[in-house]
Amino acid sequence: TSTLIVFNVFNLVDLLLLDWLIFATWQPKMLMLPGTEGMDEYADYGFYFSGFLKGLAGSVVFSLIASTITIAI
Q1: What DSSP state is assigned to residue 43?
Q2: Are 56 and 9 in contact (CB under 8 A)?
Q3: Distance between the two ends of the chain, CA-based, in angstroms?
Q4: DSSP 8-state symbol, 33
Q5: Cα separations (Å) of 4 from 29, 44, 70?
Q6: Residue 63's pLDDT band (boundaries 50, 70, 90)?
Q7: How many CB atoms lie within 10 A of CB 7?
Q8: Are 62 and 7 in contact (CB under 8 A)?
Q9: Number of C-beta neighbours around residue 39 at 10 A
Q10: Long-range contacts for 5-14 (Cβ within 8 Å, ≥24 apart)?
Q11: What's the pTM?
Q12: Element (H, E) at 65
């Protein structure tokens, strides 16, 4: 279960700090692709949230794999 918590905390930090705060809210020009500055798609919070949900599913799978390897060792 601790592996699952670590993966989920990483996923939550990615959503809140990187995706929503930096990419969607601040939108620094040095992180944007040339010619796409100011596009509405960068502020699509729903897109980032759907990626978060996919990350939750992935964290379950990866934590099961990590737990299986740990038990096998």
Answers
A1: G
A2: no
A3: 17
A4: P
A5: 34, 27, 13
A6: very high
A7: 19
A8: yes
A9: 12
A10: 7/58, 7/59, 7/62, 7/63, 8/56, 8/59, 11/52, 11/55, 11/56, 11/59, 12/52, 14/52, 14/55
A11: 0.86
A12: helix 45-72
